[in-house]
From TrEMBL:
This is Nicotinate dehydrogenase subunit A. Residues 163-173 have a biased composition (Low complexity). GO terms for molecular function: 2 iron, 2 sulfur cluster binding; metal ion binding; oxidoreductase activity. InterPro entries: 2Fe-2S-bd, 2Fe-2S-bd_dom_sf, 2Fe-2S_ferredoxin-like_sf, 2Fe-2S_ferredoxin-type, 2Fe2S_fd_BS, Beta-grasp_dom_sf, Diverse_Oxidoreductases. Residues 163-183 are annotated as: Disordered. Keywords: 2Fe-2S, Iron, Iron-sulfur, Metal-binding, Oxidoreductase.
Length: 206
């Protein structure tokens, strides 16, 4: 790594001056220097999605993103989306639909869905599956994750409609219904599979 220097980072709306090597991964700065533990260290290769943050509203893998190239870009972590009093629609959806088991992958799932809704608020099932195909859930909670993402689309639509007009009717809710009537067992070999391979591939039995 190159020698440390003063690096300016704008994170969750606040400016920070940190003494870091420009080559240092953003994930290390967020967790070690700023105490933001939403993004997780998973693979260190940008492949599992656990470290996902938003950079100017787009999903980025913080474990492979050097801090020296971020300049004045706006970085948003899970902590910057919302709080207990006013959660982001995506956070609220994952709470309502219980879209987690151990929770380690949850940061990446939530931030990836938020990035999708930033670009396409009315995302459909195909959009959701395509967006999440690079995020791993080793617990196999894929049905709940997809249900949470669909619910997030609903809540996002309701929030946008409310902002546009307080009198606008809310769209009918499907709640947290999963696409399948019952959870199918997932074999042990699927523990590191993506949403697409578990739900659309041969790993579902029964």
């Amino acid at each position: 790594m190159s020698a440390p220097k003063q690096i300016a980072l704008r994170v969750n709306g606040s400016e920070h001056q940190l003494l870091l090597s420009p080559d240092a991964p953003l994930l290390y700065a967020l967790r070690n220097d700023l105490g933001l533990n939403g993004p997780k260290y998973g693979c260190g290769l940008g492949e599992c999605g656990a470290c996902t943050v938003l950079v100017d509203g787009r999903a980025a893998r913080a474990c492979i993103l050097p801090v020296g190239g971020l300049g004045q870009r706006e970085i948003t972590t899970l902590e910057g989306l919302g709080d207990l009093a006013a959660p982001d629609p995506v956070q609220q959806a994952f709470i309502e639909c219980q879209g987690a088991q151990c929770g380690y992958c949850l940061n990446g799932m939530i931030m990836t869905v938020r990035a999708l809704l930033n670009r396409k608020p009315e995302a459909d099932e195909a959009d959701i599956r395509r967006e999440l195909r690079g995020n791993l859930c080793r617990c196999g909670t894929h049905l709940e994750i997809l249900a949470s993402a669909r619910r997030a689309v609903e809540l996002e639509g309701q929030r946008r409609a409310a902002r546009a007009s307080a009198a606008a009717p809310s769209p009918a809710s499907t709640g947290c219904a999963t696409a399948d009537a019952a959870r199918a067992p997932v074999p042990e070999t699927a523990t590191t599979a993506t949403v697409d391979t578990v739900l659309a591939g041969p790993l579902i039995r029964g």
